[in-house]
Amino acid sequence: MANKKNNKGNVKIAQNNNNGGDNGVNSAVEAAAMLTTTGGSSMDRNHQVDLLKMAHERFFLDENAAEHTGFPQGTIDKLNHINALGIAVCVCNEVKYGTSDFAVVIRKSALPELTEALKEIGVSFDNTKLLPSKDDAEAVEVTAEAVKVSEETSKKLEEDAKARAATAGKVFDPTKIKDEEELKKALSGFLAMNRDSKLMDSVMQCVNFYKAYRSIEAKRAIESAEKTLKETKDKEYKANAEKALASAKNDLERIKNMSFNDVFREVVNLTGRVGTLVYGIGAHLFNVTATSGSPVSAFCELRDHATDKNTGVCKYTDNQIADVVKSLVIIGADEVRSSGMTLLEKENNLPEKERIPSHIETANKNIAFADKATAAVLAAPGSFVESLKQNFLDGNNFAKKTVISIKRAYYRDVAPEMMAKVKPDSMLDNATQYAGIISNLFRNPSDPLVGYAKENIIDLAFKTDEEIKAEEEAVAKAAKEAADKKAAEDKKKAAKGKAKAQVKK
Length: 505
Hints:
single chain, mainly alpha, 3 domains, three-stranded antiparallel β-sheet, 21 helices, 7 strands, 64% helix, disordered N terminus
């Protein structure tokens, strides 16, 4: 956005590869040496322009995406959900902290997607206050008056604003963090930057920074204990120092071997639910995974979101993206499961005759939904991959969305007009390979799905002009035959109706 020019909100050091060979302290420290945060509770005029530009790019410039893929526009719009969430949070911040003359223009066909995104973060539209666009009959103008922010979301936005304000313009170095409170402040500020950074940047930098700080903390404890052992002759002091040294070495080893999910869980436990956009996107990835029973679409959506739109390059590895998806889905699942268990416990504590069956049913459904998502990111099912092509051909909605998400994640360099010429089998076979490769990122390395590898992905095959012409002629012929058949049937029905009328006379 506009402030990219001065690099506000960006990390000053190269990104960490959390899957590096050593998985150790040095890589974590090196990669997360500093975090720089920005504050501010509302958008200035430049940022309002940025928001309008973002909405235009996401909801207007891609209005022909249906033609590019062969699917209904509604299906295409669904795949812009992460971007819709980003815009939704920007809108909410502006409604809460901005000016009364704020307005953003949205294409009517994209309005349901934005409405759903707002709903996921506890916000709704007052449709009676949506204004028709003065410049476009197919668009509406969303003003501050049309947006209703729930009390809970309002509190979360306030927490985000406080976190940003507390760290505005500060540079945090893990070697200089004084205590847990300062660590919490740094991480909260970065997670709360709903406007200037992407999800992957926020989560990866928080994980790297936290791991770096804990590693430095453990190393300092080791150095202190070793110094005591070297300098003191007191037996009691030596004994305590030996215990401290062993404990610090265990801590350092634990930190080295912590999974990405374990580290991020500790970050969340420390910061709480700061970062409306982070957890809004997390809830979306959870819903996508639980609904489809596979993490493939969620992975592709996040990869697409993390890809530079100008260069087409994603600076994160597939393993890193999978780590973030897994962490956010598990956190989302745990929350839904906990709510379900609480509701179930509440009902079971009542006398049997006072229990409400619908409440119990809802609780059990939510628990099962959460379990399905957790199972999918811990052991992605092979059945989803194996049946992807056939399910797509049969018109299965999940399969369609998955193939489209794979196209967006891995084929953004293919021009729309060329994508329309791709032979279906060519795309579907490659999509199946990608689905298998992605699924293996969410399975135990000792138990991979066999037969899926990047080497198996071939160049897309394109239809010739002659083949396209033949297809068009076949479609036209089939349409004419169907129309002729219907006309003949209508004529026959009309004749029968006329004959019956004559008999009655």
